[in-house]
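Budget justification, computational time. The allocation requested in the original proposal was used primarily to generate structure tokens for proteins on the priority list. As evidence of use, we reproduce two of the resulting records. The first is shown immediately below.
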Amino acid sequence: MYVPFDTLPKHSRIWIYQSNRKLSDEEVEEISTQTQSFLEDWSAHGQGLEASFLIKYNRFIIIAVNQDLQSATGCSIDASVKFIQELEQKYNIDLLDKMNVTYKQGEFIAHKPLIDFKKMAKQKAVSPNTIVFNNLVNTIQEWQDFWEVPASDSWHNRFF
């Protein structure tokens, strides 16, 4: 069952899917409608999941579930991945490739393959102070505290 994102507990489980390109406002609107519809029916072992989502910066789809009421299970997680794959196909985007880095360049958000980001770090085109998106966070609280952080404070720090 879909609920507003801000009503979920801070320890709710999240999954972050980053797009390899910025989505248009129209695409965000369509994806929002489709995601809400998916979450309305999302369940685990026949029990509805209390879930929500956000789309940030026209690039990140963040899905959250309150596991206090019902935990997401293998089958329900598989269903969410299938949904994400359908979005990938429909909008010709890549949401599941974890070998990419998204970071801020001033007010802009850049997206590079991991190998290119490593090269940029060696060339000092990005620094330990570069704001990166740490998509490995697991809860809403971690997302709020550790998602947009200097590279030195995330797993990206190994490149400097």
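The second record produced under the same allocation is shown here.
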Amino acid sequence: MRPARPGDAPALLALSRPFVHSGALRDRPRHVYAARAADFLVAEAPDGALEACLALRVHPEAPHGGRASAVLYNVCVARHRQGCGLGARLLRTALAGARAEARGALFTATTGNARLFLRHGFAPVPASLAPAAWARSLDPRRNARVLARAL
């Protein structure tokens, strides 16, 4: 596992594309992946191919007077690597990083079954508890569930 680099943008886009086509992820152009590369943690195969990614973005606003929060987004594991614990390892690494930065809570939104997040202590919460700018960016047509975990 390593932090992503701007040069990883094409691979991040390719890794995300099947999830965009299924409706699990929002479509993001390549330049967004390049601009936000510092948000991403990636799992790399021995041949250098990206097999999984997730992004963690800090939101400095503190909802309800609490500590700043962070948001997980764009969580992807290549189909051939699903079910082997790679997503869980990425998530544990992101949780440790968020804890080290003393974030108050970690939020995510998902249109899927949320098993990975639920197994790692996330629970459904109202979007009003999340950072306001991020909550406003959620597309209500996607009917995503907002989940959170205290850190």
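A brief technical remark on that second record: The mean pLDDT is 90.
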